[in-house]
């Protein structure tokens, strides 16, 4: 039976770019909401909506990742069963 491991290949630069882009996007949105020429209640509502959108995005990304990992685990279990059957099979055995 072969041991296959799922390896994530993320570089430090990609990780840094993801953090930087998230930070810039949140800062730009916060500055944009702050600069709106409207009352404080409207700005507060927009800020809460943005925070809800961000947390929902993180949750969605986690759910998608978890489903993908679960599918990989099922696939690995199925592959292990097939490998075991092939290892135990003797094509020269008389029936």
Characterization of the model:
This protein has about 100 residues and is mostly helical. The protein contains two helices and no strands. It has helices at about 10-35, 40-90. Helix 1 (about 10-35) runs antiparallel to helix 2 (about 40-90). The chain is elongated and about 85 Å long.
Portion of residues in beta strands equals: under 5%
The geometry reads as elongated
Contiguous uncertain segments of 5+ residues:
none
Helical percentage: over 70%
Topology:
Elements: H1 12-35, H2 40-88
Helix pairs in contact: 1-2
Properties at a glance:
95 residues, mainly alpha, 2 helices, elongated
Concise synopsis of the structure shown:
By secondary structure, the chain is mainly alpha-helical. It has 2 helices and no strands. The protein starts with 11 loop residues before the first helix and ends in a 7-residue tail after the last helix.
């Amino acid at each position: 039976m072969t041991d296959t491991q799922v390896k994530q290949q993320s570089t430090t630069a990609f990780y840094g770019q993801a953090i930087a882009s998230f930070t810039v996007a949140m800062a730009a949105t916060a500055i944009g909401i702050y600069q709106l020429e409207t009352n404080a209640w409207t700005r507060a509502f927009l800020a809460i909506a943005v925070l809800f959108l961000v947390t929902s995005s993180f949750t969605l990304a986690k759910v998608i990742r978890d489903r993908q990992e679960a599918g990989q685990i099922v696939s690995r279990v199925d592959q292990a069963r097939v490998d075991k059957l092939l290892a135990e099979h003797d094509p020269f055995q008389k029936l």
